Amino acid sequence: MSGPAPDSGRLTVIGVRHHSPACAGLVRRRIAALRPAFVLIEGPVDFNPHLPDLALGHDLPVAIFSFRADATGSAASYTPFCAFSPEWQALEAGRAVGAQTLFCDLPAWDPAFGRRANRYADPHGARTEAAERALAAALGVADQDALWDVLAEAASEAELPARLDRYFALLRPPGTDDPAEAARERFMGAYAAHALRAAGDRPVVLVCGGWHADAVRRHAAQADGTRPEPAPPEPDLRTGSYVVPYAYLRLDRFSGYAAGMPAPGYYERVAEAGLAPAADWAMTAITAALREAGQVVSTADRIAWRVHAEALARLRAHPAILRADLIDAALAALVKDALDRPPAWAAGGAAPGHPALAAMLRALTGRREGRLAPGTRQPPLVADVAERLRAADLEPGPARRSIDLDWAEPGDRARAHLLHRLALLGLPGIAREGPDRAEPGLPRERFTLVRHPHWLGALIEASLWGGTLEMAAAARISARVEAAPDSLAVLTGALSDALFAGLTLEGDLLARLSAGIAAAHDVAALGAAGAGIVRLYRFGDAFAPSRPALARLCAALAARALFVVEGIREPRAGLGAIPLLLACRDLFREVGAEVAGLDELRGPFAAMLGRRLADPETPPALAGAALGFRVACGAAGSDPEAALSRLRRFGLPATLGDFLAGLFALAREEIAADATLASVEGLVAAWGDEDFLRALPSLRMAFAWFPPRERERIAVAILRRSGLGEARAEVEALAWMRQRARPADQAEALAREARVAARLARYGLT
Amino acid sequence: MAKAVRAGGDREARQRPPAEDVHAAELARLRAEDSAPRPPGWQLSLQAVRRFICGDGATPAKVVCAPALVERAMVTLATSRALLLIGEPGTAKSLLSELLAAAISGCSTLTIQGGASLTEDQIRYGWNYALLVAEGPSPRALVPGALHTGLSAGRIVRFEELTRCPLEVQDSLLSVLSDRVLAVPELTGADGMVYARDGFNLIATANTRDRGVNEMSAALKRRFGFETVFPIADLEAELALVQREATALLARSGVPRSPDPEVLELLVTCFRELREAVDTEGTGMERLSSVMSTAEAVSVAHAIGVKGHFLRGDAGQPEDIVACLAGTAAKDDAEDLARLRRYLDQRVSRRSGAAWRQLYAARHLLTPQ
Fold first, then answer.
1. Above 80 in pLDDT, residue B345?
2. Sequence-ordered list of residues with C-beta below 8 angstroms from that of A326, at least 6 positions apart, any chain
3. Which residue among A98, A221, A510, B37 has the highest number of C-beta atoms inside a 10 angstrom radius?
4. How close A324 comes to chain B (CA, Å)?
């Protein structure tokens, strides 16, 4: 195996593991010793003009958030820094020695950069995995992270550079090319060559992932020294790079098998104070976390844990207690259970095997959250949102405030649009409290608003969607539609959100919706979409500019329903058709002539339902709904008396409940005369107990269409018919309405009693 | 000679010699080479024990498990807690405990076999009643149990299947494990207290299928360090282990040939799939409730080899697997037989390769004739 290419004279390439304290220390010492003219760092080159932003005195961790967005979609990429990141130390050390400090990697929008969410995720293939496994086995450690600790974090300053070189050479043999990374490495190499030329006879330091170091050296030796320019972004591509606050929790979540170090909370202490004090901190942090979770960690346990960890570290010849010793010892001393699966705390996302172990790992992650210094450059969206909130007097404050909005008031509508747009961006601290949007009539809404610590970060990251609030909200909806272009539920949700947010409806969404409605076969999905669309239409002039488009959708809905309902055969589909027929009932009964083309459908629709009603094959729920529809819309030959005769045809235990569910759903007000109920009662009274129990679930479903007050009235009527006095009936009905035991349990009890009675009868014991 | 047979049995004819005898040469070599510090009462340093169990360049590992587990176990034994190995049946818990005891104390035979009928006397000490009646309680009349011997000699005591013992018997360990002393109230003076010498500790094993560790008293739990032993994660490692063990067992049974590698791979693959409920392509499937352990695979491989050699004169056929699987699966649960049938019908039927086809063709053997 040939060794890595040597640093050629003035260029020093330091290959690091991202977020490694040992590497951070190495970078700091090298830069201080070499006092280079340039410090180049693996980071987005397009951020170079804004580098002073990073020196403003932020609370770390922060990240450079880069995005690219065009009509076809968007992508975001992060370049995270914490205080002990080698890249951050390079920035600071470079500034301290007066070097010119620059990022030298491709911008995140460059096609060759690909769609990686984390710039510092080093590639990891089957080969590297095998190499690391072999190395771990040879050194007697369990996983990649433990291996790194033994190799690098526990190494002395003198040994570290040679160990890193050998380690990285093992992962990627020197001289090999990685096609996926070649463009970035060529760019960094060319940038180094350019810096060397500009530096005259002074040295240049380049800090990058260890994976790239050898390739960058090679490319630097071959490059001619002209400054590499990234390909300019395509004309309609929106790009940007901004500093955002970051958090240890997010940093740890990134650390899959490929990326950086786990447990940032722990390594922060390693960087600050060294391995032994970090182990002390970790033991205290883990104990606190376990105790907080209600686990007993006695002083004796802590002593045993400490002894165990020390012994393990000595057995493994570690200079101090390392992270693996710490957790291994905790596993032996603190976990008093059998584990469900082999313990795994290596990076890689596998479940750690025991809840206590998971809690320990969380404790090591730490809770630190970054904060931006005042005066940090922000994307235009931040200013746009701030300006709009101020104009509407809706700025979030430290205390949560409620905002009540009435869509009947034009002033409130503008505020509602604003709040809905913010909610679409998923900004923290803003929430819509209600009411349920299914209520008819113009909605009243309540939002709550509070200044959330993550507000600014989320808003900067939302600028991925657009430069203004309106643009960002619209892009958010488009992305949702793109993700599920054939789902009626998603499309209707998007339509509703767009209308509430006061966004112009895009032709694309409407075209997709009409096409989706025209091709729909799933009755339940069509019904849910139809209910949503009809409700939006019935809000009237709240959505005035979009009313013609909504009317066209309504007409398409009725036409499709006419076709779909004709073909329903399955009993389940019959029940599923109820919401669709409800939507159609509202359309024909209340919208009618307003919508072009609807009146022409009225006759055929009623006729179709008449056919279905006469057809003996029609599922009972659909027959009930068809009858209800005709009664509610006043079709010829359909009056409540006709309903009574139909009722008898469906009066069997297997069909009555479904039939009534359809009927009550569509024509509750028209049909709920006592005559109908008395006839239902008559039918049910003729059944045996077993039949009744079989029919009970569907009957309950049918009567669920009545609001509680009406159900109580029905109960009173039934009790009166059974001979109770008025006062008594009311008391009894109230008791029925306020039952403690679940009806299902009561039915079960009845069934058991019946079985007992049958058995007693069999043995002649009654 | 006659004395030797009485005392330890004829060494050549013993069915299963203890680990310290089997690996006597290796232990002696390790002791000679060992220069690292040893915990008091230990015959080897921790590093040497690790080399003995996990192997080094020259010798293979004796147990397939994570080195970290062995390290934790040793450290637990070297500190003040006892060790409890928990796991599914057949995951080499007892083997690991035997190897640890052999390496640490040079003696793995101070063993208490747990069970529902175990009493305190069998653990601690009993009496030679003839002497007791004749002389009254005296050290001569006392018959030391494993715990008594372990304490006074400073050795590791093994307690197999701890959770199968009645709770009160389990709790008789409490005072010994915390105060490291066993009181013999019948004796007076120095004989009345047996203090633990350096090197004494306890390795218990418990089985997750039996009454679990959940029923152990919290007081006893506190005195143990828990280690869960898992089935072997790696197919190659398990295959190699089954091959090695089955060959050794076959040799002892007078079968000169080693098992057919193809049949063995089939067997181990079946066992792994049925145990983990995931087939080799990663698709989920039904889990057998019977124990499909590596130990069980070894004994099935042994049975197949014996059957093939003595009945037909070959090294075993794939269809023998079906017959043995039926026996294994029907041990615990009749429903497992149906699961096994579905496994053969749904998974094995789709596999290519002559051995898999043969296995599938023999599925009628699942139905008793």
1. no
2. A279, A282, A283, A286, A309
3. A510
4. 9
DSSP string, A565-611: HHT--SHHHHHHHHHHHHHHHHIIIIIGGGSTTHHHHHHHHHHHHHH
Comparison of pLDDT for A466 and B306, the residue scoring more: B306
Helix, strand and coil percent figures for chain A, each rounded to 5 = 60, 10, 30
- pTM here is 0.73
Q: CA nearest A442: which of A328, A541, A511, A521?
A: A541
Closest CA to A662 of A599, A573, A537: A573
Q: How far is CA B123 from the centre of its chain?
A: 20
Q: Touching check for A139 and chain B: CB below 8 Å?
A: no
Q: Do B67 and A140 touch (CB under 8 A)?
A: yes
Pick A117 or A659 by higher pLDDT: A659
The answer on pLDDT for B341 being more than 90 is no
Which residues of chain A are within 8 Å of residue B71 when distances are taken between CB atoms? 312, 315-316, 328
Give domain B2-229's CATH architecture.
3-Layer(aba) Sandwich (3.40)
Residues of A in contact with B221 (CB under 8 A): 336
pLDDT (tens digit per residue) in A468-505 = 888 888 888 888 888 888 888 888 888 888 888 888 77
Q: Helix A299-315 vs helix B46-54: angle between axes, to the nearest 10 degrees?
A: 70
Q: CB count, 10 Å around CB of A276? A: 13
Model confidence over B65-91: pLDDT tens digits? 888 888 999 999 998 789 999 888 878
CA atoms within 13 A on the CB side of A164: 29
pLDDT at B131: 92
- Using CA atoms, how far apart are residues A486 and A516, in angstroms rounded to an integer? 7
Apex B66 CA angle, B65 and B71, nearest 5 = 110
Using an 8 Å CB-CB cutoff, list chain B residues near A313.
none
Q: What is the DSSP string of A269-293?
A: HHHHH-HHHHHHHHHHHHHHHHHHT
Task: Compute the mean pLDDT over every residue in chain A, rounded to the nearest whole number.
Answer: 82
d(C-alpha A367, C-alpha A359), whole Å:
13
* Rounded (5°) CA angle A206-A207-A210: 120
Q: Which residue from A minimizes the CA distance to B54?
A: A140
DSSP letter at A546 equals G
Cα A443 to Cα A348, B8, B91, distances in angstroms: 48, 92, 65
Residue A171 to residue A210: CA distance in whole angstroms: 9
Residues of B in Cβ contact (< 8 Å) with A354: none
Cα–Cα dist A359/A365, whole Å: 10
Where residue A652 falls (left for φ over 0; alpha for ψ -120 to 50; beta otherwise) is: beta
Q: Given this model, what pLDDT does residue B263 score?
A: 84
Q: How many helices (H) and strands (E) does chain A have?
A: 31, 10
Using only C-alpha atoms, chain B has a radius of gyration, in whole angstroms, of 23
Q: Domains of chain B: which residue ranges?
A: 2-229, 235-366
Is residue B212 very low, low, confident or very high in pLDDT (cuts 50, 70, 90)? low
B interface residues, A as partner, C-beta within 8 Å: 46-47, 50, 66-68, 71-76, 78-81, 86-87, 208, 212-213, 221-222, 224-228, 230, 233
Chain B: residue whose CA lies nearest to A141: B68
Q: Are strands A62-70 and A73-81 parallel, antiparallel or unpaired?
A: antiparallel
The residues, any chain, with a CB within 8 Å of residue A690's CB and separated by 6 or more, are A754
The pLDDT assigned to A436 comes to 61
